[in-house]
Amino acid sequence: MSLPSLWWLLILLPLASLSGWFVGRQGSERRSGQRVSRLSSSYFRGLNFLLNEQPDKAIEVFLQIAEVDKDTVETHFALGNLFRRRGEVDRAIRIHQNLVERPHLTEEQRLQAVLELGEDFMRAGLLDRAEALFSDLGKVHGPAPKALHHLIWIYQQERDWPKAIDHAHRYEAATGEPMGKLLSQFHCELAEQARAAGDLAAVSQHLRDAYEAESHSVRAGIIEGRMALADGADVEAVRAFERVARHDVDALPEVLKDLLQCYQRLGDRPRARAFLAEMSERYPGVAPVLALAQLIEQDEGAVAAGEFLIRQLQRRPSARGQNALIDLARKAPELAADETLERVREISGRLVANATAYRCGHCGFGAKAHHWQCPSCKRWGTVRPVHDAFGE
């Protein structure tokens, strides 16, 4: 049996068992003999479809078995979810709409049915219908966390940041889950819009709101720094950019170019060198190293810059760093000695050794050695050589 068939068997056998239990329960009633026989026959017919790799027909049979009442409503929820995951959203919508319209559902079941129907609409791209459904749900049942979560997602897609902010606050109040990082991003989106419109007062307010939501907001700091840079307030810009990089070192590439421009306009080379030396120790990439090497070259010459770069590249091999070292060697004959060339060769060897030589064409799994079967997705024959600067 193929893996897809086994998957369907594992999913649907519990449904079949539920149907069997239902049949057994009804079997105690005298007048249900024909009904029991019909359901038993349908069950085995559905199982036969399943074993013969005809899951669509099997689902249809199990749908017929699972008559909607208080005992089998969960079966319909399971089937509706199966349809949605398979991309058969229309069928999922029909199942969940049918459940919503049933008068005998408990409040909990009705809430679940409405939520499932809203997810169907979202999957189908009917965001306006999903939004209306989840909004009405909140009016009837109060703040339903799952509905609020979906509404936040919808408003993000529609870029309706005020509504996204409002519902994020509601979600936080209903669940106690901190939403500060998300709220900060929403306020930064509004700040970017206000900045594009030239409304500086609104920008300042949205940045304050972003910091209130997340005290160390990296994005708010970058916006603040770039606004100061545009106004010629280089000291304030340097302060903002340095704060961003120290709080989240991975944000350094986003601010480094602007920061170097500020240092240059201020003529504060000592502060620039000190900060880049700090970042060279903390940031695993090569960007601050290359920037610091340029300053060392300007202050002390190409030989000093090359020696610094060699020491750094021995710790973190980099193609960009290697190119910079070659450029320095062309400027200073002292760096073109055999010892320097040997260092370049060592760097190249480490780059090749650390590179991904093979990659799965199905899931993207990277490996240094060939595998006939991908260790990640388990597909056969999908691992191929990587053809790039460090591959074949």
Rg (CA only): 31 Å
Structural class: mainly alpha
Written as H for each helix and E for each strand, in order along the chain, the element string is HHHHHHHHHHHHHHHHHHHEEE
Strand content: under 5%
The largest pleated sheet is described as: 3 strands, antiparallel
**Terminal residue distance:** 38 Å
Q: Uncertain spans, ≥5 residues at pLDDT below 50?
A: 1-10, 15-39
| Overall 3D shape | flat
Q: Helix proportion of residues, in percent?
A: over 70%
Task: Briefly characterize the structure.
The protein has 392 residues and is mainly α. 73% of the residues lie in helices and 2% in strands.
Q: What does this protein look like?
A:
The chain has helices at 3-26, 33-51, 55-65, 73-85, 89-101, 107-123, 127-141, 145-157, 161-175, 180-196, 200-213, 218-230, 234-247, 252-266, 269-282, 287-300, 302-315, 319-331, 338-354; strands at residues 358-360, 366-367, 383-385. The model is unreliable at 1-10 and 15-39 (pLDDT under 50). The protein has 19 helices and three strands. Among the domains are: 279-354; 355-392. It is flat. It has a three-stranded antiparallel beta sheet with strand order 2-1-3, with no helix packed on it. The chain has 392 residues and is mainly α. α4 (73-85) runs parallel beside α6 (107-123), α6 (107-123) packs antiparallel against α7 (127-141) and α8 runs antiparallel to α9.
